[in-house]
Design goal:
The protein has 13 helices and 12 strands. By secondary structure, it is of the alpha/beta class. It has 2 domains: about 15-270, TIM Barrel (Alpha-Beta Barrel); about 280-345, Antifreeze-like/N-acetylneuraminic acid synthase C-terminal domain (Type Iii Antifreeze Protein Isoform Hplc 12, Alpha-Beta Complex), CATH 3.90.1210.10. The strands form 3 sheets. An 8-stranded parallel sheet has the order 5-4-3-10-9-8-7-6. Strands 1-2 form a two-stranded antiparallel sheet.
Amino acid sequence: MNIKIGKKNIGPNERAFIIAEAGVNHNGSFRIAKKLVDEAVVAGVDAIKFQTFSADRLVTIDAPKADYQKKNTHNSASQYSMLKKLELSEKNQTALKKYCDSKKIIFLSTPHSGIEDVDFLSNLNVEAFKISSADLTNIPLIEYAAKKRKPIILSTGMSSFEEISKAVNAIRKRGNKQIILLQCTTSYPCPPEDVNLLAMKTMEKKFKLHIGFSDHTTGLLAAQLAVAMGAKVIEKHFTLDKNMPGPDHCASINPKQLSEFVLGIRLVEKILGSEKKTVLQSEKSNLKTIRKGIYVAQSILKGTKITRKMLCIKRPFAGLLPEKIVSIIGKKAVKNLEKDTPLKKNYVR
């Protein structure tokens, strides 16, 4: 079953749906957020995704930072104080959604701090809900989002198949079958040995759902491999400048790399082609010059009985296919044949 996000179809015969993950790389600035939208449009992605949250509802006052947050922000401030600076007001998010609409790019955002975020995004008429790996075990949030009858893109970092199964069942029990599972490793950046793309294929077989990849690597190759393996949704963090202060910038790609990222994926899709095996238009001009036919290897007089050594197989293709050579041996020439004459059926009997 194809899933529709905006005007984009997600399915077996469709191009990968590419999400530029802006996340909190706007650093709380509406101006930077708009610039991120502009760069995403230039890169040619299908959607740009932000994060909707209230620090007061998301974390406790004294919640410690994750290790990667400590490393990337270089200070000892709490997770709460960090996130408080990264909030975008509902007014700004509403304006951002309108800005995305005007730029013909799909606006998405992750409801991070509870069902209030789901309601807010639903009222903004978002095309789908992206549930983060952090909320894969937050069944109440998942159930609530599922009831909105919009596609659910579910990241699976830090999770087991049992936990994924519970989340998928929670969505299905609410009558929502529009589910896309993203292979994800919650590590920023993710080392190559932890990408584990084969798990994506296992999820596809186990849950019979569309699959994708949330890419936290520093390079471009992993996502291209994921598309070659059947990923139909690709998500990648990007920033205006990797050197900006904040938890996610250094594990993101810049605008130039985002454009390369999109071009690389589209090139992979061209290379993959279709499941059909036919003679392609680009091959037809080479077919006769590259393939071979049966030729006369030496002069043969009329009435001579043909032996194998009197024949050869050469380019270009003319006359008879090489597979016919056995049927020619033992027959007699009905006319004189010069060397390198392409043999035809009516030249022997």
